[in-house]
Amino acid sequence: MTATQGRAAAGNGAQAGSAGGDAPGERPLAEDPIAAGGRSEGGGRAADGDPARNDTVAAVVRQWQTVRPDLDTGPMEIIGRVNRCAALLQQAEDAPLRRVGLSRPEFDLLGALRRTGHELTPGELARETFSSGAAVTKRVKQLTERGLVERRGDTRDRRVAHLRLTDAGRDLVDGVLPEQLAYESAVLSALDDGSQGELADLLGELLSRLEGHMRGLRV
After folding, report:
1. Tens of pLDDT along 61-78?
2. What is the rounded distance in angstroms from the CA atom of residue 12 to the CA atom of residue 119?
3. Which pairs from 19-23 meet CB under 8 Å and 24+ separation?
4. Pairing of strands 149-153, 161-165
5. Contact 102, 95 (CB under 8 A)
6. Distance CA 80, CA 21 (A)
7. Does the pLDDT at position 143 exceed 70?
8. How many other CB atoms sit within 10 Å of the CB of residue 46?
9. How far is CA 147 from CA 98, 120, 154, 190, in A?
10. How far apart, in whole angstroms, are the C-alpha atoms of residue 122 and residue 148?
11. d(CA 170, CA 162)
């Protein structure tokens, strides 16, 4: 997701999301322990600021509850953790991509051309990768210079370009994607299959609602 993604929420949620920061020397995400689903010993949801939780957001929540016990910190518990997870994932997930000299945005662009299976215009690529037109133009230029993407002019409108992968670009995506997926599986391995499915469902529901809300605001 450059769906892009992991933006800090306004107010308290933003502060919780940045808790722990991106300080140098942090352990890689794959080595970090993952809290066991945020459950108390009795099987129910742990109370806000529960001492059993030892992640960085829990510490921030407990501090806020000490100085402002009148506030409901529940939203911070969710949004702060989404932001924190996004920041850590962005640090860790690109290791296989770096080995082949790609950034995550560049791989997203190559991936969009591969998964759609047909040529795309720069505008279509911007929508597919949740990027600005200027960012897509810059990435296309770099990937074209590397021989991974090629452009074809439109016969009816010279202002329009059609982009597609070269054979080298297709081979690169097909080669790195299995390694990238295996790496991401290792990152998530602390959660069993059932927990991963539940988390995917909850995040999907939240994302659908947020996207619908944002589309409504643009109308």
Report:
1. 999 999 999 999 999 999
2. 43
3. 19/56, 19/57, 19/59, 19/60, 19/80, 19/84, 20/56, 20/57, 20/84, 22/87, 22/91
4. antiparallel
5. no
6. 12
7. yes
8. 19
9. 18, 17, 20, 39
10. 15
11. 16
CA distance 151 to 169: 13
Which residue shows structure tokens 């994932």?
89
Cα(4)–Cα(89) distance, integer angstroms: 12
| DSSP alpha helix (H) spans, the chain | 12-17, 56-67, 74-92, 95-99, 104-116, 122-129, 133-145, 167-187, 193-218
Angstrom distance (rounded) from CA 123 to CA 36: 42
pLDDT of 39 strictly over 80: no
Residue 219 pLDDT > 60: no
Q: Report pLDDT digits (tens) over 191-216.
A: 999 999 999 999 999 999 998 876 66
Secondary element (H or E) of residue 163? strand 161-165
167: amino acid identity, one letter: D
- State how far the Cα of 28 lies from the Cα of 157, in Å rounded to an integer: 49
Residue 127 DSSP SS3? helix
CB atoms within 10 A of CB 110: 23
Token pair for 140: 């296309």
Cα separation, 73 vs 115, whole angstroms: 41
Separation between Cα atoms, residue 217 and residue 211, nearest integer Å: 10
Could you tell me if 76 and 13 are in contact, meaning their C-beta atoms sit under 8 angstroms apart?
A: yes
pTM beyond cutoff 0.85: no
**Contact yes or no for 120/162 (Cβ under 8 A):** yes
